[in-house]
From TrEMBL:
It comes from the Bacteria. It is found in: Cell membrane. One of its GO terms (molecular function) is transmembrane transporter activity. The keyword RNA-binding does not apply. This is Putative ATP synthase F0, A subunit. Keywords: Membrane, Transmembrane, Transmembrane helix. It is a multi-pass membrane protein. InterPro entries: MFS, MFS_trans_sf. The chain crosses the membrane at residues 28-45, 57-78, 90-107, 113-136, 148-175, 207-229, 264-286, 298-317, 324-344, 350-371, 392-412, 424-447. The keyword NADP does not apply. It holds the Pfam family MFS_1. GO terms for cellular component: plasma membrane. It comes from Lactobacillus ultunensis DSM 16047.
């Protein structure tokens, strides 16, 4: 029976691919390439750049969540432009915006300018994460949509992990050349950046600058690819004529659809998880390098393995959604991360040297894989909770909600949690508690009625 069902599913998927609209398919392939390029960029911005900012703009790092909240607000504004401008125009505007402000962070020592540039470049990069859910629900056949969500996220992670691996090593390599020492000596020095002074510190900082500048230039590949995207108004809104504006009553009726049981519970869940994640995710490179004193080159390797684990987790998403249901997949993957977080909170007790590197690397590998095994499912669920016209607005609502969470995280980390080194460890304990509570709540209030929401949505699309 199971074999027969799997065979039938495979035949239906092959039929969906065969009948795929050529324009839709072309746009999907182009965006896969674009998102791959931007994955390479985030491999630097999520790792090496943060270490650079900890040297030149320490206030940016200590209040990172606060500034990430500003990023979320800007992303919510930018993503709303899709409804009027379309996918192509937005994708053409993002790479220059990213590159200019990334490079600007390397040309000044003025902390406010660096912070503003970080906010603007991060906002442009962040829009890419919200573009593919919108495009996929328009362009990808329902039969293969969950798998294609996995594919796009995997491609992004593959390029991110490659660049993250290269980025840390490149910083050490350039530093060794500028300092006139061996790679091994430079790697050992990178484990204690706080001890660097004078010319050595300048050379170490300049090594980061070169890596960031090269990365900024890579974004123009994404610009070139976006030139070939062909979209139509019907792809991103129900009415082709945007001059035909709805009445105020119609607008109120439409936007009331954003406030219902499903959307409210979903937003609360996302916010609770992000409240916990925001306390430690951005600080992983700093926790490893500055607190646990793991050398910079090894830190980049651990972070790369962590990214690879996410990639592995994504592959299990379609299987888990079929077996457990979409909501149970999301909730369970959230809850089982908690024990690993508690171990990370006590990482200093795990030993030193190679033992510490191996244990921490293993913990982060499993944590990242488990935490992200449901992400493709989560992205698709988020888009089918509302109608096509409301998807950009719903994405914007979530970003605004996350910006509020970011402010809370930022104020908490800046003025209390990260006042001491122990705060970096305590962040994992608080996050573990939030993950457990949010996962349980999601199961209690959402699972019974909406656990098979993806299956029901796909069946509804096919019936039209």
């Amino acid at each position: 029976m199971r074999k027969a069902k799997n065979k039938r599913d495979k035949i239906e998927e092959e039929e969906a691919i065969k009948n795929w609209d050529p324009r839709y398919k072309r746009n999907v392939i182009l965006y896969l390439c674009i998102y791959g390029v931007m994955g390479a960029v985030t491999g630097i911005t999520n790792d090496a750049s943060l270490s650079y900012y900890s040297l030149v703009a320490p206030h940016l790092i200590s209040a990172l969540n606060l500034f990430e909240a500003m990023v979320s607000i800007l992303i919510s504004i930018l993503i709303l432009s899709v409804h009027n401008m379309g996918y192509r125009k937005v994708l053409l505007a993002l790479p220059p915006l990213t590159a200019v402000f990334m490079i600007l962070t390397t040309l000044t020592t003025n902390q406010p300018i660096i912070i503003i540039s970080y906010i603007l470049s991060s906002s442009a990069i962040g829009v890419y994460d919200l573009m593919y859910p919108l495009m996929w629900t328009s362009y990808v056949p329902s039969k293969i949509r969950t798998k294609m969500f996995t594919v796009v996220m995997v491609i992004n992670l593959v390029t991110e992990s490659i660049m993250m691996f290269i980025g840390g090593k490149a910083v050490v390599y350039i530093f060794s050349k500028l300092q006139g020492i061996s790679y091994r000596a430079a790697s050992n020095l990178s484990a204690q950046p706080d001890a660097m002074k004078g010319v050595m510190l300048a050379n170490y900082t300049n090594a980061y600058k070169w890596v960031i500048i090269i990365t900024a230039l890579i974004t123009f590949i994404a610009f070139a690819l976006a030139l070939f995207i062909k979209d139509k108004p019907v792809d991103y809104r129900s009415t082709e004529d945007k001059s035909a504006k709805p009445s105020m009553q119609e607008k109120m009726a439409t936007y009331k659809k954003l406030v219902n049981y499903k959307t409210v519970v979903w937003v609360l869940y996302i916010c609770a998880v992000q409240l916990g994640a925001g306390l430690f995710i951005q600080y992983v490179p700093i926790y490893l390098n500055n607190i646990l004193h793991i050398p910079r080159g090894i830190t980049s390797t651990i972070n790369t393995l962590q990214t690879v684990a996410i990639f592995v987790g994504y592959f299990f998403a379609p299987y888990l959604a079929k077996k457990l249901g979409s909501i149970m997949t999301i909730a369970i993957s959230t809850i089982i991360c908690a024990p690993l977080m508690l171990v990370m909170a006590n990482a200093k007790m795990l030993g030193t040297g190679a033992v510490l590197f191996g244990v921490v690397g293993t913990i982060l590998f499993f944590h990242s894989g488990l935490a992200n095994a449901s992400m493709p499912v989560q992205q698709e669920v988020q888009m089918i909770l509302v109608d096509k016209d409301l998807r950009p607005a719903f994405s914007a609502v979530i970003e605004v909600a996350l910006s509020v969470v970011g402010v809370i995280d930022g104020l908490f980390t800046e003025f209390y949690l990260l006042k001491t080194q122990q705060g970096y460890a305590n962040a994992y304990i608080i996050a573990a508690a939030l993950y457990i509570v949010s996962g349980i709540v999601l199961i209690i209030v959402f699972a019974k009625k909406y656990n098979r929401i993806l299956r029901d949505s796909h069946a509804s699309e096919e019936a039209k």
